[in-house]
């Protein structure tokens, strides 16, 4: 298999994922160059991360990538995408592709005009645990899905998971929501564990989404506490006609209607041993629900997901299936904006409307 060659636009925290992956899986990925427009900043970045840095898009494309990864500050994504569309450069864009209705609609108009090769780097559905949950649904273990209660992802990430798990596509919905505030003690951040007992007021958003086909989502998230905390954890429940997923526990009926309860078992290599740590799989009983494409590679779950997106982006550019389309990204961000509207309305109903990107 030939190496997947990609270039990177951006130098922030998220962009570093794409650098690490190329270094940790060099037999599969090659980062051709990083675009940093400020020359001084670019030189410092090249020294720190030991990567080739260029200062223009023209120089970036001279390194012959199969596609570029766009990972820049949110407010600049839409403008960059327009430029890449016009140049017919395949792009994997970090989320979200736009921040307001005007940018979402202009992006879709540009997409229809240029028909570019674009996918969006919504990574959570290919993270090991979420992928295992989704495989259980695909296998029909709990029957027709009816509702989801998700307290693990913010905004458009949460919306993306809701639409995928419920299978609601581009249906409209009615939302009811409110934002609450609670005091919580800091325990963890990107720099590591925290022991000083500092407290802060943290918002908690609660939104109910009722879709056209009768399926319902209960969104609940406390940002930033749930992403980086040892005392605010992830919770997910998906109920179907013949069972439910309750976080790491799955309850379902056999063909003979015998109720079974099993727990997901995470397989990590090197635990309590001298083999180098790596994630391998998630199992339910004797069945694999997920196996990593990167066995024996020391990647965390989010890095596995991002690397999986790179694999699938290369397949898409070569004529394969879409990974996570711009159409889906626009719909998820649109519902996220309506969710904010519902929260501000404090339980007054907010209805969504069909947008131009709906098939």
Give an overview of the whole structure.
There is one protein chain. This protein has 359 residues and is an alpha/beta fold. It has 2 domains: 4-123 and 319-331, Rossmann fold (3-Layer(aba) Sandwich); 125-297, Dihydrodipicolinate Reductase, domain 2 (2-Layer Sandwich). Helix content is 31%, strand content 30%. It has helices at residues 15-24, 39-49, 57-61, 77-86, 101-114, 128-138, 155-166, 301-317, 326-345, and strands at 4-9, 29-35, 53-54, 67-70, 91-93, 118-120, 145-151, 173-185, 188-189, 192-193, 199-211, 216-221, 235-240, 243-246, 249-253, 259-269, 278-284, 287-291, 350-351. The strands form 3 sheets. Strands 18-17-16-15-14-13-7-12-11-8-19 form an 11-stranded mixed β-sheet. It has a 6-stranded parallel β-sheet with strand order 3-2-1-4-5-6, sandwiched between helices. Strands 9-10 form a two-stranded antiparallel ribbon. It starts with a strand and ends in an 8-residue tail after the last strand. The mean pLDDT is 96.
